[in-house]
Amino acid sequence: MSVGPPSAEPEITVVVVDDHQIVREGLAALLAALPGIRVVGSAADGREALHVVGEAHPDVVVMDIAMPELDGIEATRFLVGRRPELRVVMLTMNEDDETILSAIRAGARGYLLKGSGALEVEHAIRAAAEGGMVFGAALAGRVAAFFAGAVAVPAPREEPFGELTERERTVLELIAEGRSNDDIAGRLYVSNKTVRNAVSGIYAKLHASGRAEAIVKAREAGYGGN
After folding, report:
1. pLDDT (average), residues 100-127
2. CA pair distance 76, 70, nearest whole angstrom
C-alpha cells in the first residue's frame, strides 16, 4: 500500500470585479501569483459579476463599488442574498461613512481602499475566506467605533416600497426603465418564470392593475432615472 504526499491546503478561489481594465487585470495577475489563491474569473461591472460569480462559484469576490450598470453594493446584496456563504471584499476609492456601512449591510466581509498594499489585500482575502471581517488600516478604527456605538451610525436611507423584496425592487427598477420581462431576465441572469413571479408580486403589493400603473408608481418614487 503506497502513501502519497500530504494533500495541499485547499485553494481560495477568487473573482475580481472592477470597471477599470488596468486595475482589474493587474489585481488578477497579482492574486494569481500568490500561493493558495486561484483567480477563476473577472467582471467589468456589477451585472457581469452576477453572471461570472454564478458560473465560477468563487470563495471570495473582490468588488469595486462605483461601476456602471450595477454598482458593487447592489451586486453584493444580490450575490450574498443568493449565496450567504460567499465572501465579498470591497476594494474602492470611496471612504465615506455611509458607503462603508451600506457595504457592510449589503453583506461585505471586508473593505479596503485602493492603494492598499499587496500584503493587506492578500490578508483580507484569506481572512474573509476563513469567515473573518477585515477593514483597511485607515478604516479599522472608524468601523470599530461604529460597532461600539461610540459615534452615531448614519441611518440607512429609507427605501421606497419597503414591502417589496430586494429582487422585486430590482425588477421594478428595470420595469420603470421600460424593459421587457425577457430583457430583465437576461440582465439579471434568471429565468423568465422568476421574473414573471416577481412582476406578479410587485403588482399585488403595489395594488397596481398592470405594468403601466406599476411604472407610474415606480417613477413617482424616483425609479427609472426619471
Report:
1. 88
2. 10
State which fold the 166-225 domain adopts: Arc Repressor Mutant, subunit A (1.10.10)
CA 211 to chain centre: 28
For residue range 133-170, list pLDDT tens digits in order: 888 766 666 666 665 554 454 555 566 787 888 788 88
C-alpha cell at 145: 467605533
Q: Grid coordinates representing 31?
A: 492574486
Question: pTM of the prediction?
Answer: 0.64
- CATH match for 12-148 among 3.40.50.2300, 3.40.718.10, 3.30.70.20, 3.90.1300.10: 3.40.50.2300
Under 8 Å CB-to-CB from 120, ≥6 apart: which residues? 112, 136, 137
Residue 31 pLDDT greater than 90, yes or no: yes
Contact 37, 14 (CB under 8 A): yes
pLDDT at 3 over 50: no
Query: What's the one-letter identity of residue 137?
Result: A
Q: What residue has cell string 456602471?
A: 68
User: On the CB side of 88, how many CA atoms lie within 13 Å of its CA?
Assistant: 29
